[in-house]
Amino acid sequence: MKKIFIGVLLLIAIFLALKNQSTFSPETVKSEPVIPTVHENSRETIYSEIKGSIKKGETFFNIFKKYKLDISELFQIREAAADVHGLRELHPGQQYKITVDNNEKVNSLEYRINDDAVLNITRTGSGFYARKIPIPYEKKILHIGRVIKDNLISSFGEGRENLILALELSDIFAWDIDLSTDIRNNDTVKIVVEGLYLDGAFKKYGDIQSVEFTNNGQVYKAHRFVNNGIAGYYNDNGNSFKKAFLKAPLNFRRISSYYSKSRFHPILKSYRSHHGLDYSAPTGTPVSAIGDGKIVFRGNKGGYGRLIVIRHPNGYETYYGHLARISKDVHNGTRVNQGQVIGYVGQSGLATGPHLHYEVRINHKSVNPLALKMPSGESIPDSLMAEFRSFRNQMDTELASIRTPDFTFARKMNGTSSNKL
Ligand SMILES: [Zn+2]
What digits encode the pLDDT tens for the residues 247-266? Predict the structure, then answer.
């Protein structure tokens, strides 16, 4: 603790010396030598900072001991933080900062919870006060254009943020496009997205505002709009992209995170079969429930091998066959949600290689899953249509200005202060 204190004094002295050098002529310096008395008012407090990032297995108890800080203060801090963010929930690599006064009392403690918020605990008259502070990103609007080569993820380029952007995109279109099998070379994507910056440096993407995806010659457009307090994506006519059934039982995001460790993205194929669709996919690929429903069969059934059957509203049933295994929490009668992982691709039953057999039945009759006409999703209410149209028109203009291939452009957001999140 002493070392830090001396270090701070030294820094202040150097700073004052440099400051004097630049503002006073050499003669004045001679007659008025700089003495490092930092504050004339003796009651004024000097703070020093302890900064670092959490090491694996490290706790604030360790940190307080290391810097010889008062453990009883840590207990007060922990109590103050309990309702905001537990002080024991630490992630290695996250930054912290503790300010300490010249009596070695903790004045404040900050811990970066995640990309969006900092836990801030400050001394008050009676103890400590904790709150979560949003990180004050500066928002810019980014225009991005890409041409798809090979697959969606590699077309967005390297890095975590690009991966996340591609996955967000896959979520928006999860009801209309099977991004693991429907993607074609030379498909194009144009995106209007928020970019979040700290100190002028790009940190991450915010919300996708609007996207135009041209898939196999067909144009899909989605605009982000808040309806009834819930943000969703709507087409040009104000219909939600959300539908009763997803486009495919192999969810692009699930597959991508499943295979992210191997840096290899499986190329899946789907083909029409006897009375359903077969998706050839590596063993272990997660299989998702296509829509909300109830499990009415799980187990072995002849040529299907390990099979799950889900009953959905309006007489629909979906079949998932040849599974390697079934998720532990999936039992007869279990309610499952759209997108939930129910099992994993395998080759149980009559199968020559690992693939998912997927079948849709309406009132017990098989239908072609690809020909299913899903009613369009919920619509924006009339009362908000004018607002939606004006946003859509602005987005259409922005989308039209984006060129492909490989185009990125940032502009400041209108009327948004840098502190606004
Ligand atoms: Zn089949």
Answer: 999 988 888 777 765 555 66
